[in-house]
Amino acid sequence: MTDAWPTEIRVHKDHRALTIAFEDGASFTLPAEYLRIESPSAEVQGHSAADRQLVAGKREVRLQELIPVGNYALRLVFDDGHSTGIYTWDTFHELGREQDARWTRYLQELASKNLSRDEAGTVRRH
Fold first, then answer.
1. Which PANTHER family match (predicted)?
2. Cα torsion angle, 87, 2, 50, 34, sign
3. Structural domains of the chain, with CATH
4. In this model, does residue 120 exceed pLDDT 60?
5. Which of 75, 79, 89 shows the shortest CA–CA distance to 16?
């Protein structure tokens, strides 16, 4: 754990990204699509690495609501109905630090399964 503590949390006007700044000086802009596909929920992460779900078709997803969970996290509600992920401050910090590597891995996984960012379950046409 980094004991990350936010100093600012801002949802962009178009609801497609969240910017979060931390006491340690780090600041990250996290797209809604990225937050959705990396949701810490059991629905996405499963109960083991083998259970992790690849979430496709979320390019247009938007943040609908941010609900405080105590003083340690937010529950994000997305406009596709997903609302079970509890994002701790440490989770946000980790997602920000690892954004490039996680995003690259996600795009590679989509390509390997011939899936698209545009519609869930849609096969890409070549």
1. OS02G0197800 PROTEIN
2. positive
3. 6-112 (3.30.2020.30)
4. no
5. 79
C-alpha 111/C-alpha 119 separation (Å) is 14
What mean pLDDT value characterizes the chain?
A: 91
Stretch 8-12: mean pLDDT: 97
Q: CA end-to-end span of the chain, whole Å?
A: 43
User: CA triplet 58, 97, 56: central angle to 5 degrees?
Assistant: 15
pLDDT higher for 29 or 51? 29
User: Which two structure tokens, joined as six digits, stand for 49?
Assistant: 């690495």
CA distances from 100 to 69, 106, 124 (A): 27, 10, 23
Per-residue CA distances from 73 to 49, 62, 70, 85 (Å): 23, 19, 7, 10
